Amino acid sequence: MNVTAQNHDDVSALLTVTIDRADYKDNVEKQLHNFAKNAQVPGFRKGKVPMSMVKRQYEAGIAFEEINKQVSEALNKYVNENNLKLVGQPIPQPVDDFDHNKEQLSVSFEVGYEPNITIDLAKYSAPYYKVEASDKEINQSVENMQKRFAEQVPQDKIGKDSHVALQVSQIVEEGAEGEHNHPPKNVTINADNKEAFQLVKSLKMDESIKVSKADLQSNEELAKELGFNKADVDHLHHDELEVTVKDFYGLNNHELNQELFDKVYGEGTISSEEELKNKVKTELDEYFQQNADIFFVNKVLEQITEKEEVQLPETFLKKWLMFNNENIRTEEQAAEVLEAEKATIKHQIIEGKLMNDNEIKLDYADVLAQAEQLVRNQLAIYGIHHLPDEEVQKYAVEMLKDQNQIQQISSEVAMAKLKDVILEKATKKETKISHDEFLEEIKK
Fold first, then answer.
1. Residues 32-82 pLDDT 10s
2. 3-class SS of residue 197
3. Who has the most CB within 10 Å: 57, 151, 182, 361?
4. pTM here?
5. Rg, the chain, Cα only
6. How far apart are CA 275 and CA 66, in angstroms?
7. Is there a contact between 409 and 370 (Cβ–Cβ < 8 Å)?
8. Is-contact 171 241, C-beta < 8 A?
9. 219 with 199: CB under 8 angstroms?
């Protein structure tokens, strides 16, 4: 077996795999004999079917599968040994005179691959912001902790500081389908939810007000505050809804005391208000800095994508688009699609080149660690900061049973490793900045 390459240009070629009958003959004969031993054909005892009959019926199909297998293996081996980074997939060329009894067969494939470029990260520079949390942001974060563990205080009527629990039910017309098919929504609002709060602020406990489907369609904010997105509203089965006040109460923020410190961070971790604020500042600074690092990396990648010459195998990609998408039938259509995707393909090639040149590799431990961090982040939203490591890992392993999650998390890990490389090697123009100032930079 032999593989030869006829280069069209620096990024595309015709690869031809030549296979001798001797390469596959023995495997085909072996499979035919195994088939004959187990074949059950009317008029013959098991294992006694004449080999001539078996060959006549099955040899061509078995030979085709074996040839296809060996050709694919040879092609993959050639690509790997020559370190070709393919763009798209090889396109097989038609074989007009396929005959498995020939002494030699040739199968050709059009391929496109990434250009051989060198990217010197040190020559790229961007602003690198050291972002610090302000006292206002620290105090707001502490206040949010107090609100999270606040005490509910009964009230006589709904006031501007009230939290109002609502039940939103569809009103079923007489003779229509049963109400049990449309379970009510339960939402809690406050004065920040202006549209819904205005709707119910004059109601008493267990009093209701009706809202029409048309009202929700014309007021998306009200719909959202009552728990409906646009699609939910459009698919409502009935024309009226009933909004009922089920409860209302004020909140007394939790005192800044040891009980609160223990609830948030675990027993004995924090022992004073000063320690709490220092801890919060550290967490906010780390979070803000992660965003600043990503901002820097994205700026560097933008520059690389803009300035580096990346030759794409355009002729091949047009053929590949037509081969893989039945809706793309002409070269003109393929050219339009390619033009729209060029920037994305170039960006992917650059990222892949940087990962390859800097030997960025993934293993399961990396992916598991990222999944565990995602679990911790999700738990932190609900104020849970001290779940045992073995429990966190259990949730992470469960998360990784989903192939989509594995792909998403693997991509995040790869980009995180690339981010670290760019942070290390690209040139930083370092500036200290407040978080508000950083947000303004992002808007620009």
1. 888 777 777 777 777 777 888 878 888 888 899 999 999 999 999 999 999
2. helix
3. 182
4. 0.65
5. 33
6. 70
7. yes
8. yes
9. no
